[in-house]
C-alpha cells in the first residue's frame, strides 16, 4: 500500500508542501499523519495534521480557502510529500496572503513580497 512507503518521523508525521498545480508557486508547508494522507487520497481535498490542535485539519474548513489536490508526489527518501493543488479562493496563508512564503530576506531584514488579499478578520469572522 502507498502509505507503507512513507517514512514518518517519530511523532508519526511527514512534511507536506502545497504547490500550485498551474504555476508551481509554493503555497505552504504543513504536516500530515497517515490519517490525513489517506483522507486526502480519498477526498481529493488537502488534509493535514494540526500540531497545535493535535487533530486533523481540512484546509479551508474555517477560512473557506480549500485545496483541491490533483497530484501527490513523494520524494526519493520517502520523507517529504508534495500536494499539487488548486487553491480555491487564491489564499493559502492564514494571514490572508496567497502563499505563506511572503517574506524575502533583503540584506539583514525580512521584507514582505506580496500584499494581503483578504484580512484574516474577514476570513475567520464566522469562526471566532
Beta-strand proportion: 35-45%
Which spans of ≥5 residues are poorly predicted at pLDDT below 50?
Answer: none
Structural class: mainly beta
Overall residue-averaged pLDDT value: 96
Task: Note the run of SSEs as H and E.
Answer: EEHEEEEEEH
Number of helices: 2
Task: Give the neighbour order of strands across the main sheet.
Answer: 2-1-6-5
| Helicity range | 10-25%
Q: Cα distance, first to last residue?
A: 40 Å
Q: How many distinct beta strands?
A: 8
- State the oligomer: single chain
Shape: globular
How are the elements arranged and paired?
Elements: E1 14-20, E2 26-32, H1 34-43, E3 47-50, E4 55-58, E5 67-74, E6 81-87, E7 103-106, E8 109-112, H2 120-123
Parallel strand pairs: 1-6
Antiparallel strand pairs: 1-2, 3-4, 5-6, 7-8
Describe the protein's architecture and organization.
- The chain has 128 residues and is mainly β.
- It is 11% helix and 35% strand.
- The strands form 3 sheets. It has a 4-stranded mixed β-sheet, covered by helices on one side.
Amino acid at each position: 500500500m502507498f502509505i507503507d512507503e512513507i517514512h514518518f518521523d517519530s511523532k508519526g508525521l511527514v512534511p507536506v508542501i502545497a504547490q500550485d498545480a498551474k504555476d508551481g508557486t509554493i503555497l505552504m508547508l504543513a504536516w500530515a499523519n497517515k490519517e490525513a494522507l489517506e483522507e486526502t487520497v480519498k477526498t481529493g481535498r488537502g488534509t493535514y495534521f494540526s500540531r497545535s490542535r493535535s487533530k486533523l485539519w481540512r484546509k479551508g474548513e474555517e477560512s473557506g480557502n480549500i485545496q483541491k489536490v490533483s497530484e501527490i508526489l513523494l520524494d526519493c527518501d520517502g520523507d517529504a510529500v508534495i500536494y499539487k493543488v488548486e487553491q480555491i479562493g487564491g489564499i493559502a496563508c492564514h494571514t490572508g496572503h496567497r502563499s505563506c512564503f511572503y517574506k524575502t530576506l533583503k540584506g539583514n531584514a525580512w521584507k514582505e513580497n506580496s500584499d494581503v488579499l483578504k484580512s484574516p478578520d474577514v476570513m475567520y469572522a464566522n469562526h471566532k
